[in-house]
Structures are given as structure tokens and as C-alpha cells.
Write a structure and sequence with these properties.
Blueprint: E1 39-40, E2 51-54, E3 59-61, H1 63-70, E4 75-80, H2 85-101, E5 106-114, H3 118-125, H4 131-137, H5 140-143, H6 152-161, E6 165-169, H7 172-181, H8 188-194, H9 203-213, H10 222-249, E7 255-261, H11 262-265, H12 271-277, E8 284-291, E9 309-314
Parallel strand pairs: 4-7, 4-8, 5-6, 5-7, 8-9
Antiparallel strand pairs: 1-3, 2-3, 2-9
Helix pairs in contact: 2-6, 3-4, 7-10, 10-12
């Protein structure tokens, strides 16, 4: 019997209703040879091999077909586990592939930077700030803190092309007050930042978060969970609105690539939900999967609704099990 999927397993990002925590594992993929006809995997106990697959139908794509499939979408969401180097490598590969096809017309939206620090990103892209200056001006260490090396290739590519980088996330001051005091604790400008989608009915999202935490809400009582959950929604609402407003203001931009944690991306229930309510298209969701010691099976992917594509790659240094 194969082991059940759970926290830390390579397939946990594909079936969040079976998860017991919010951190989802994943990674990147490289494809070989073009196929004359799409290979289709059957959800019958078949272990996934490295490659790119459509979630709906299970077709395996080569890279050229994958980028062709993205070409008509202005919003492309790529999930990540924040400390997973292979996730970040796949993000860089997708961003580079899109930028190569549409030079100067691809923007990058980042959960890692909060909206008040947009000027720091603008200055970095314009060459007016070096990396050390960006980290200082954006208060990166205290407001995000994950290894900047994970994000350096993305930012350097945008700087090289002079392309926009968006500070998507809500200010920490807003989310702290929202957690402690609710909407009543926010000033008018902060409430406006959340927009109307903050209070929108999204029961599937709440259910996803609840099931990920487990029946005990990860040890939180109901009041604590309620505070926790409204911050989750605030992050998604602000990031979705920021991406949607930018797209509406920049018809010259071919794509905005949004990089964010898995629970902000998967199933289209987080950022994408709020971006759509702000008038943006649904976009395309790419979920990376890392193959480690445990296999990932086709039935965990095909028809799961976790996204539009999964990009599967072995963890570096590990061969086939």
C-alpha cells in the first residue's frame, strides 16, 4: 500500500482537502523531446514522471506547447512553498520563457513585498537602487524574511528588461489591526484597500483552509481561527485587487506572473477569486510538484481542480524510486 499523502509529502499541494497543515510541498520540471501527439495519463495508480501535465484530462505537454497554452492569458499564477528552492527555479523558468516570447511586456507580481513599498521596487527595476538598497527600503527582512536568493533570479530578470515588479501584499500594519480589532479597527484608506471582495461569499475557500488545518483548526479556538481566517482573506483580496488594477491600467502588458504561496493560488479560490471580482480574467494556475522519496500518483492530479497545469520534477540529487 502506498503511503497516504500528508504534510511534507511531494503530492500534498495537489489534494489540499487531505492536508493537515498549510505548508505544501512542490517543485519544478524539465521536459524532453517533443511529442507528435499528446500523451495522456490515466488516473489508475500510475506514478507521475517528470513533466508538465494538464490537470483536466491528464495530457502531458512539451514546453513549447505549455508556453503556447499560456500565451492567451494575461494572469498566470504560480504557487510555491516559500523555502523550496525547486519551486523558485520553476518560477524563474516560466518567467524567463514568457519574457523571451514577449520581451518587455511581462510583469511580475510578488506576495513577498507589501504595497507601501512599491517605490522601492520601481527604483530597483530602474537601476536607482541596488539589491542591498532594495532590501533595506522594502524592509524585506522583517516583513518577509525568507532567503532573498530564492527571488533574486526573478527580480534580476525584471531589472534587466526594465519590466514592472508589483508589490502585491497588504501592509502588515493593516493585517495586524484587522486580526485584533476587525474591520472597525481600520481607517478609511485601509478599508478601501480591501475593497468589496473582502466580504464576498467564498465558502469553498474557507472549507479548504479548515480542512488543511484539521478538525481542531491547528489548535486554534473558534475566535482565534476567525481572526486568522480574515487575515488570509485580506491578503488574497489586496493581492487580487492590486494585480487586477495593474492589468486594467496597462493594456500593453501581455502577462502578469503572480508568485505566491500555494494556498493563495491553488484552485483559484484565493488571489484569483478576488482578481476576478475586480474585473480581471480567471487566469492560468500552475502548481509545481517535487518527486522525492514518495511517488505522486496520477489520481492525485487528474481532475483534482488544483490548477490548470502541474509541473513535476524530481528533487535534485534523487533518482527514480
Amino acid at each position: 500500500m502506498r503511503p497516504a499523502l500528508g504534510v511534507g509529502s511531494p503530492a500534498e499541494s495537489i489534494a489540499p482537502t487531505r492536508r493537515a497543515a498549510l505548508a505544501l510541498a512542490a517543485a519544478c520540471a524539465m521536459l524532453s523531446a517533443c511529442a507528435t501527439a499528446p500523451q495522456v495519463i490515466e488516473p489508475t495508480g500510475t506514478p507521475l514522471e517528470p513533466g508538465i501535465y494538464r490537470v483536466e484530462g491528464g495530457q502531458r505537454l512539451d514546453k513549447a506547447d505549455f508556453f503556447d497554452a499560456l500565451s492567451g492569458s494575461r494572469l498566470i499564477y504560480i504557487g510555491e512553498s516559500h523555502d523550496n528552492a525547486t519551486h523558485h527555479r520553476i518560477q524563474a523558468e516560466i518567467l524567463e520563457g514568457l519574457a523571451r516570447r514577449s520581451p518587455g511586456r511581462v510583469a511580475l507580481g510578488m506576495e513577498m513585498f507589501q504595497r507601501p513599498f512599491q517605490p522601492a521596487l520601481d527604483a530597483f527595476v530602474a537601476g536607482k537602487l541596488d539589491e542591498a538598497g532594495l532590501l533595506s527600503a522594502s524592509e524585506y527582512t522583517t516583513r518577509w524574511g525568507h532567503d532573498f536568493a530564492f527571488y533574486r533570479p526573478l527580480l534580476e530578470l525584471m531589472r534587466l528588461q526594465g519590466s514592472p515588479v508589483l508589490a502585491l501584499n497588504a501592509p502588515g500594519e493593516l493585517t495586524k489591526r484587522l486580526s485584533k480589532e476587525g474591520l472597525e479597527g481600520l481607517d478609511e484608506a485601509e478599508r478601501a484597500m480591501l475593497l468589496e471582495s473582502f466580504g464576498a461569499d467564498n465558502p469553498a475557500h474557507r472549507a479548504m483552509i479548515q480542512e488543511a488545518l484539521g478538525s481542531s483548526h491547528g489548535g486554534m479556538d473558534e475566535a482565534t481561527f476567525a481572526r486568522f481566517y480574515r487575515v488570509q482573506v485580506a491578503w488574497d483580496a489586496v493581492m487580487g485587487a492590486t494585480a487586477a488594477d495593474f492589468l486594467a491600467s496597462r493594456p500593453d502588458i501581455a502577462h502578469v506572473v503572480v508568485v505566491a504561496g500555494m494556498f493563495h493560488v491553488q484552485r483559484g479560490l484565493g488571489i484569483a477569486f478576488h482578481a476576478q471580482r475586480r474585473g480581471a480574467e480567471g487566469g492560468v494556475i500552475v502548481i509545481p510538484i517535487a518527486l522525492g522519496d514518495e511517488a505522486v500518483f496520477a489520481e492525485d492530479v487528474v481532475g483534482s481542480g488544483v490548477g490548470d497545469f502541474v509541473w513535476v520534477e524530481r528533487v535534485e540529487g534523487q533518482g527514480a524510486p
